[in-house]
Amino acid sequence: MELLPNSGVLAPDASVGGNRRILALCSLAALLEGFDNQSMGVAAPRVIAEFALSARQASFIFSATPFGLFAGAAIGGRVADSVGRKRALIASLLLFGLFSVLTSLATGPEWLLLARFLTGLGLGGAMPNFVSLASEATRGKQRVSIVTLIMAAMPFGGAISAVVALGAQLGWGWRSIFYVGGFAPLILALLMMRYLGDSVKVPLVTRWAPPAGSVLIALFGEGRARTTLLLWGGFFFTQSVLLLMLNWLPQFVIGLGFSRTQASWASVCFNLGGSAGAYFLGRLHAGERRRKWVVVTYAGMAITLLGVASIGTSFAVTALACALAGIFIIGAQLVLFALAPLYYGTSIRGTGVGASVSMGRLGSAVGPLYAGLLLTGGSSSATVLLGITPFVIVAGVAAFFLTWRPQSDD
């Protein structure tokens, strides 16, 4: 094992089997993150009915997890640069598993709001760490495509969440979604304690020391200011669109006159489309024509949003439109996740990725609140979808100019 240049940390063992194990466990973490991200959205119709929530109350509850994610991502990424990604990831999984279980025990809106916020803290700490672990376990030109493929487990997890919601036909309540989403990460955390190795080993003598340099230097020093701001813009506005769709899509579909079961299937199509599309978009964005594919991806987001907003009474057409929207909306976000670690060196990667994810989570809180305000004001589901088109444009511009920024050497 050798010291990585200018990092103060030790390089990982050159173990193919070890790296594959890291990637497999990161995939499972991404799957569970996707499950929880979608869980409140697919449970929403029954949660709203049980607690008689207004659109305003529902929008605050939907945004509670993203606000927790915002804080958790910033803290979790920075802490991981000090104590190691493995420890930070396991702690995050334990936290979000515990509070997801507590979500299932909610007896009122206040309990639900608090449980979802605390779940978000754990989720937020998990994401920058499994993204960084996966990126560090992959080398060369395959990093973007492989990490995007790993992250494609997130929408697949969302699809599983929507399938679990269909258990209502078997007499399962909405609480069963959060039982599954709570106990699964607790089990995964135990597996990681035994089988997960850090992709980057932190020396024992510095394991509990703060990372070198301030957060501001890590994010904005040495010419990284423009890169960081472009990443933040891309993450913020792309996540605004994505979380709005994840949380409100079932309600949108019901608002168009379809049943709750059909709404759950629409969520399945959206997530499976994103999971399948992420693989192809990851390979395309890893190539030499990344700028062209950035334009295609964000143009596809705008067009498919217009398509979902203008669908008629045929559920087959609705399902197809949702699948196409998933390909571009989810695909764009997963590509950003894969790209973010490439712009920060190993010693500050957790801080850089965590800050980008944190800004995305802030955007994911804004999206549902924005939808709630429009719906409270009397806007239709179609109007809400059309109203987020400017978010897509800003995100696309940020991602486009990001392609000119230099990447880290390690």
Report on the structure:
This protein is an all-alpha fold. Helix content is 76%, strand content 0%. The chain has a single domain (16-402), classed as Up-down Bundle (Growth Hormone, Chain: A). It contains 15 helices and no strands. Helix 1 (16-51) runs antiparallel to helix 7. The relative contact order is 0.17.
Structural class: mainly alpha
Query: Can you give the helix content as a percent range?
Result: over 70%
Rg: 20 Å
Q: What multimeric state do the chains show?
A: single chain
Question: Could you write a compact summary of the structure shown?
Answer:
With 410 residues, this protein is mainly α.
Task: Give a topology summary.
Blueprint: H1 16-51, H2 55-83, H3 85-103, H4 109-136, H5 143-151, H6 153-165, H7 175-195, H8 215-220, H9 225-255, H10 260-285, H11 290-309, H12 315-339, H13 349-376, H14 381-387, H15 389-402
Helix pairs in contact: 1-4, 1-6, 1-7, 1-9, 2-3, 2-4, 2-13, 3-4, 3-7, 4-5, 4-13, 5-10, 5-12, 6-10, 9-10, 9-12, 9-13, 9-15, 10-12, 11-12, 11-14, 11-15
Features:
410 residues, mainly alpha, Growth Hormone, Chain: A, 0% strand, globular
